Amino acid sequence: MSTPALADQLNLRLCHGCGQACALRHGQHHCDRCGAPLHRRKSNAITRGWAFLFAALIFYIPANALPVMNTEMLGQGSDSTIVGGVLEFWEAGAWDIALIIFIASIGVPAIKFVSLGLLLYTAQRRSQWARRQRSQLYRCVELIGYWSMLDVMVVALVAALVQLHGLGTIEPRPGILFFGMVVVLTMFSAMSFDPRLIWDDQPHQGEHGDGAGN
Description:
Number of strands: 5
CATH topology of the largest domain: Butyryl-CoA Dehydrogenase, subunit A, domain 3
Radius of gyration: 22 Å
Number of helices: 6
Distance between the termini: 31 Å
Number of domains: 2
């Protein structure tokens, strides 16, 4: 059975801005529709993916160590970390909010760290292991990325509800800023990764096998 021609062999480029498949003309380097630069692959996909992932891991330490909110009830105030907030909501009987915060703040970031690390490592090694499953894993990481700010939204919602009912005040603390940075950096890592690297058997012309280039 003959192997289908690759897009590169047909002189086609997929625009990373609008998704249009562009048939390149001589001297053309930008998408006809949106004007975005055209590349054969995402430039330095693995290098940038690792950089964003390691930065996210660094920010994840203060995100958990520093308080994310200050709760003042009946004249008494206290700072809470992510884990401390989960325990407080659980002990107060709000197990549903505690579960949401636990999944969004601890479960989802841990899954994204492991998944992105696995995708980057296997792509860098040009592994042929479980390619279809790794492609599905990448789509899953992209999907849960849209819900990564759920924890920040929960803190904002709880703060609004508490102050609305006059029960006290809740104010954000530096930890929530670091957590927001973790979310943004992991999303950048996922966006930098090129899933086509999963299916590559031979090194591309890009530097260090990243598939870089125009």
